[in-house]
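REQUEST ID: PR-0412
SUBMITTED BY: lab tech R.K.
PRIORITY: routine
TASK: structure prediction, single protein chain
INPUT:
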Amino acid sequence: MKVTLITGASLGIGQAFAKQLASEKHNLLLIARSENKLKVLCDELMAKYNIKAYYFPLDLTKPGADQTLFEETETRGLQVDFLVNNAGIGSAGDFLEHDLQSEIAMMHLNMDAMVALTYRFLPQMRARKRGKIINVSPMAGFIPIPYMAVYAASKAFVHSFTQGIAEENRLFNIQTMLLCPGATETNFFEAAQIGADRKSSFSTNKLETPEEVVTSGLKGLKRNKRVTISGTQNKLARLMQFVPNSVIIKALGNRMRKNLNYV
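STATUS: complete
OUTPUT:
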């Protein structure tokens, strides 16, 4: 059975992808750590849209998680022809405020898991000369960001990898797209342990909804785009590419130091 595999599917953008694709009659395989949330979501989608929705609770930061997931699809007879690498986590604040192992775990999830799952499921797509891959990575991946240094660097890796592999996949009729949302109404800030008093330092006043991000992403995929930036304000912000990074970084650093009371 053909399925669309979505990581980080229990909340936020991943959940919005699941609901939208279920409404378009995709059969789904949903991945996240919370078994209860996944089960509830699958039951809801199957009842509402008359599709098949499977789930597999998994911590993608654990060694061998990608192989475990691949073997699970083989056991269940599931053929992944659409992969949405959405799972990710962030951190914010001075680099030395954070626990080293937490930062390394974030790097594993944001980078290693995405690469590993792409590597696992890409051979089958290439053999069929058909498939779709969306890697979700925010605007933070476009530039180095002080006080989000490791997070932004991990997302810069996603940006580079996705655009490079997209050209390789073009020869096999596989669409590969980078979806770049800005600040979105998800649990990102809570998961990154960014309190309400710090949230404005790392966000804009107007947040996108996960549904808006997914709509932009699927529209971009239909237009065969390699990079889709979600939201008008984020597209305007991308014009900052014409400003030297050194200028942007210094300005961001000065603003964040003041907002975070580091000075």
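NOTES: The mean pLDDT is 91.
REVIEWED BY: pending
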